[in-house]
Write a structure and sequence with these properties.
By secondary structure, the chain is mainly alpha-helical. Helix content is 65%, strand content 8%.
């Protein structure tokens, strides 16, 4: 929304850019830790698509709709409180609506639960088993 508003774009061009960037950065934030954990591109993409698509879609539909519904929000300049207040409100509403969907997915081992099991699997992490418990020990790179 900020870029389109800065460039003076129309509402639909601004929304399109915001949606494309949301999906691009959303998937990237999931993919980078997976790549660092040594997961291959194909499987990492599958995990990112499965874990983020519903959440990002809900967020973008709601965020964009709220911004379009609030009178003057899309036409307000970046120096105007209406723009920032509307954006904050839109993101808060979108997050509140996406939260139950994410929680439902995680409770069923889907969504972000698919990705969480791969956290801390970076090759520099060594798992030490002791008395039936796993302790993670980070190997220093100094």
């Amino acid at each position: 929304m900020v870029i389109g508003s800065t460039l003076g774009w129309g509402n639909w061009a601004t929304v399109l850019l915001a949606v494309l960037l949301a999906f691009g950065f959303g998937y990237a934030m999931t993919l980078l830790p997976l790549f660092r954990a040594g997961i291959g591109v194909g499987y990492a993409l599958k995990l990112a698509l499965a874990s983020d698509t519903i959440s990002i879609t809900i967020m973008e539909i709601v965020d964009s709709a709220v911004m379009l519904i609030i009178p003057g929000a899309m036409d307000a300049g970046l120096t105007e409180p209406l723009f920032w207040g509307s954006l904050i409100f839109a993101l808060a509403v979108a997050g509140a609506i996406a939260f139950p969907a994410n929680r439902w997915l995680i409770a069923r081992g889907r969504g972000h639960a698919l990705v969480h099991k791969h956290h801390n699997q970076h090759p520099s992490n060594k798992v030490i088993a002791e008395e039936g418990h796993e302790y993670k020990h980070h190997i220093s790179h100094h």
